[in-house]
Amino acid sequence: MNIIQLSHYLDDLLNVKEIKDSSNAMNGLQVQNNGDIKKIGLCVDLCMATIKKAIFAKCNMMFVHHGILWGGLQPIRGNFYDKIHTMVHENLGLYSAHLPLDMHPVLGNNKALVDQIGLEEIKPFGEYEGQKIGFKGKLKPLSAEALGIKLEAEIGSSVKVIGSGEVKTLGLVSGGAADILRQAAAEGLDAYLTGEGSNHHFHEAIENDCVLLLAGHYATETGGVKAVGKHLEEQFGIQTEFLDYPTGM
């Protein structure tokens, strides 16, 4: 299977043409290569470090959450040139999926968090551009502190817990979606989980009596690329490898 065939499959699998993303995101095939796909490097972020990891691991394609093409047209020079030149020189293709990967009901980042937390009776939650991009559901009652400890153990990263009290209902959206805290509070949820937030989100959580859990932008978005990699291995026998490069953010 070559990268064009595989990209068409991923377009359909992740429904990239139907999902409305931010204006900065370009979902789908971003860098083409030649030959059959033999090994795919799975990454959260496309950067020079993950490109080098992919080359070292003898990958000829990368599947990432945050691709190289953001913000429209830009001159191909400096660090941007270096990354593109290296990929083309090494015959390393690139496919990126942003919101389509967050939202996927089976393989998405948010579904991975649902499974890690043990959220039950899940429903779509978190409106963005007229679509629900996350989930909400119920938990066996536990304290906010205990939920933070449980989440740290599951994702292997530190979790900041803002607020206190018993948590029985929770909404979640991976990445940098702290503004959706307001929707969680408006719906009367006990807690809201995302990756990162700003200073003012602390006060919003306390004043609205909605516990805010910040588990890291990177850490909350590793599940999707891993799930897609496992799916491709099962469907096509293509080898994949998760190339971990945590930012701590």
Report the portion of residues in β strands.
25-35%
How many helix segments? 9
The run of helices and strands is: HEEHEHEHHEEHEEHEHEHE
CATH architecture of the largest domain, please? 3-Layer(aba) Sandwich
Secondary-structure content class: alpha/beta
The overall strand count is 11
Q: Identify low-pLDDT runs.
A: none
Mean pLDDT: 97
The quaternary structure here is single chain
Relevant CATH superfamily of the largest domain: NIF3 (NGG1p interacting factor 3)-like
The helix content, as a percent range, equals 25-40%
Query: Number of folding domains?
Result: 2
Shape: elongated
CATH class assignment of the largest domain = Alpha Beta
CATH fold topology of the largest domain: Udp-n-acetylmuramoylalanyl-d-glutamate--2,6- Diaminopimelate Ligase, Chain: A, domain 1
